[in-house]
Design goal:
By secondary structure, the chain is an alpha+beta fold. The chain folds into three domains: 68 residues, no CATH class; 208 residues, Clam (outer membrane lipoprotein receptor (LolB), chain A), CATH 2.50.20.10; 106 residues, Roll (Nuclear Transport Factor 2, Chain: A), CATH 3.10.450. Helix content is 29%, strand content 29%. Strand 5 and strand 6 form a beta hairpin.
């Protein structure tokens, strides 16, 4: 990632800056000071002395200037730049991440293993219940395009283990991991710095036991304008140990949360990426692909899109039209059951639709309620709300209650 510096070319530039008078050292220092400090640091790190070359004098003066600048600018020794962390990250294969939210004490946790090219090979996520109270705490494992999703259960929902194959490589999980990947984050910072979209400030405390602090403030021309990240970098390894996130509000940067990075290159046990033996035997197992086939029963591939695009109200209308026509093959397409029960057929068969209202939501239900009024074959008027949801494996609106 580091831009290569042609040492001889730079020394030639220095030679041209040297005059025959006794002030040539001062002139060289002035010349160096016109260069960006990061470029100077790169040159200094890569400088290889050769006393027999024609550039030896310029090289010696360069060293003298470097010593002078070191005393004038303590941050230049030892030098640190984002490139150091980018380079150090190239050898990272394993990592454990803890992600803290400013409103919660319990973190999200991630374990990732990458291949030699840095691509995600397998991963594990622990998601606390606060992240999705309706689902409760859950664990996700991705390995060889196979996803295992363990819902640990809530007072209203039983624990279950859902397994399925993601042919596209679990794009959403990979994206999720990349957002929390410290080496990718540093590379993005490095790129935006070169584009002038972020201001980088480096603090190297005199106390060698304290980490290097890199403050990245995103400028107005950046898509992340108004955000700030503070990275804590280990002095020895040059790896990020933690990142704090801030957002500009009312003229001040407010703390949003932080990520901690643990166990760099500590191999992760194989059983961490296999939930079959970890999940208790009494927990219900669901093969999502098989369940998906069951829920789409009776729907031809060429008409699946029609059902997937139905709004809650459209689904409710078709649902009751099927009851009116006693078309149970159509009705079952919207129900999680394998068949329509006989008592349902007797009670709702041949009904007349009086009205279907507009969907509405409530605080205690994740789906929607659609008001309906129907006249049953018996002459009885039934007025109630049909509960519908698309939070299911097929991700289309289906019946969930109120019938």
């Amino acid at each position: 990632m580091t831009t290569e510096i042609n040492i001889e070319k730079k020394l030639e530039e220095l030679s041209q800056a040297i005059g025959p008078d006794e002030l040539m050292v001062e002139k060289v220092i002035t010349h160096i000071n016109t260069k960006p400090i990061a470029e100077f640091n790169q040159i200094r790190r890569r400088l290889i002395m050769n006393r027999f070359t024609k550039l030896a004098v310029a090289a010696m003066i360069f060293i003298a200037a470097a010593i002078t600048i070191t005393f004038l600018d303590k941050s230049a020794s030892p030098a640190y730049a984002l490139e150091d962390t980018v380079e150090a990250n190239h050898n990272v294969r394993y990592l454990h991440i803890k992600s803290f939210n400013s409103s919660h004490d319990e973190p999200k946790e991630f374990w990732v293993e990458c291949d030699e090219s840095g691509q995600l090979r397998q991963a594990r996520w622990h998601m606390p219940s606060w992240d999705s109270p309706e689902d409760g705490a859950k664990v996700v494992v991705w390995k060889e395009n196979k996803i295992q999703l363990w819902f640990k259960g809530t007072t209203k929902r039983k624990s279950c283990l859902v397994t399925y194959v993601e042919e596209k490589g679990a794009d959403w999980l990979v994206s999720y991991a990349q957002e929390r990947n410290p080496w990718l984050a540093v590379e993005r910072l490095y790129e935006q710095k070169s584009q002038g979209k972020v201001k980088i400030e480096v603090e190297q405390p005199a106390d060698k036991s304290k980490p290097i602090v890199v403050t990245a403030t995103y400028l107005p021309q950046s898509q992340k304008s108004g955000e700030r990240e503070v990275l804590f970098v280990d002095r020895d390894t040059k790896l990020v140990t933690a990142t704090k996130f801030y957002r500009l509000k009312d003229g001040k940067y407010k703390y949003r949360g932080m990520q901690e990075f643990h166990d760099y290159n500590q191999p992760i046990k194989a059983e961490m990426f296999d939930l079959d033996s970890e999940v208790p035997p009494d927990v219900k197992r669901i093969d999502r692909d098989q369940k998906k086939t069951e829920l789409n029963k009776g729907i031809r591939p060429d008409e699946l899109e029609k059902y997937e695009k139905m709004t809650p109200k459209e689904m409710t209308i078709v649902f009751f039209q099927a009851c009116a026509a006693e078309n149970w093959d159509e009705l079952i397409k919207f129900m999680p059951d394998s068949e329509v029960k006989q008592e349902t057929k007797v009670y709702y068969g041949g009904l007349e639709i009086i009205s279907i209202g507009e969907p509405f939501t409530t605080n205690d239900y994740h789906g929607l309620f659609v008001p309906y009024e129907v006249r049953l074959k018996s002459g009885k008027i039934k007025k109630w709300n049909l509960a519908v949801t698309n939070r299911n494996i097929v991700q289309r609106y289906m019946f969930d209650g109120g019938f």
